[in-house]
Amino acid sequence: MKYLFSVLFLLYTMSALGQATFPKGFKLIEGDNLTGEDDRYSNGKDVFQMHMYFRSYDGDCKWNDDKYKQYVAEGIGYQLYRTTDSLLWGTGKVDDYYSYIVVDWHGEVFELFSKYNDADFSYYSKWLISSIREYRKKGKRFMFLRRFRMIS
Fold it and tell me: Which of these ranges, 3-17, 38-52, 61-75, 90-104, has the smallest mean pLDDT?
């Protein structure tokens, strides 16, 4: 019986979560963390990554409220803005890289960064926020693929 519940739980979570389908040309760059938390996806010029700010947030977990907005803004180093549908977004230059951040309704932080603020950067910025909205419309959460590696 417990296996039945496990299978049903997995089926439920698979439909509730959505692995992002990146634009053509983006490939996984594996990070050192065994859980895949520091993985990135790059096409050689532009890079997507997730940040786990919510794990160290000591607020009462009301995602995208003003306190969380300020907390993430201090972490990334530039101002965030709220959309009419309560996503947070911001863009700025950190060190020598242009950065675009979207914080979804669950407090997940997605970043696009590049050395170039060009048409590709603009296109992928729009792709990121529209994909997050599209997944929600389908009843799924936008997520980057997470790897779990075993220590060998």
Answer: 3-17
Count of C-beta atoms within a 10 Å radius of residue 113: 19
Q: Which tokens hold the place of 149? A: 């590696």
- In 1-152 the beta strands, taken as DSSP E runs, fall at 17-19, 27-29, 40-42, 46-51, 81-82, 88-94, 97-103, 109-114, 141-143
With 0-12 / 13-18 / 19 or more C-beta atoms within 10 angstroms meaning exposed / middle / buried, residue 124 is: buried
Residues with Cβ < 8 Å from 10, sequence gap 6 or more?
none
pTM of the model: 0.79
Say how far apart CA 61 and CA 107 lie, in whole Å. Answer: 8
Q: Is 128 exposed, middle or buried (0-12, 13-18, 19+ CB in 10 A)?
A: buried
- For 112-125, write each residue's pLDDT tens digit: 999 999 999 999 99
The amino acid sitting at 77 is G
